Amino acid sequence: MIHRAVDDGLAVTAARASKGEAKHHALFKRLHRRWEDYLRWVHDLRLPFDNNPAEQTIRTGKLRIKVSGCLRPLQGAQDFAAIRTYLATAARQDQPMLDGLVQAMRGSPWMPAIT
């Protein structure tokens, strides 16, 4: 049923009379072309429904940029991103973030298992 709606949307917006229709047509083309990718989570229940963890990882950095206008200097931004990524990975692996930081500061950082 949803696949039929995508097909109908492709047909209706094919003429692309306006800018809005061109954007909608591009969306319908993408949905049609990548149908299996968009619905992969329906068949593989191990996959998350959305990409929220990835968005949450970068949200703090984007908020800092929004509030102060930037992260200065560049090295500070790179260090912030490295620490944030490390903590996000530890959290996704059910590792306490504080323990991960303490281990890293002591010179024996926690490392995720290689799969």
Automatic annotation (TrEMBL):
**Pfam families in UniProt:** DDE_Tnp_IS66 (PF03050)
Instruction: Please list the residue ranges annotated as the Transposase IS66 central domain.
Output: 17-78
Per the record, the domain of life is Bacteria
For this protein, the record's PANTHER family field holds: BLL1576 PROTEIN
Protein name per its UniProtKB record: Transposase
Say which species the protein is native to.
Answer: Streptomyces heilongjiangensis
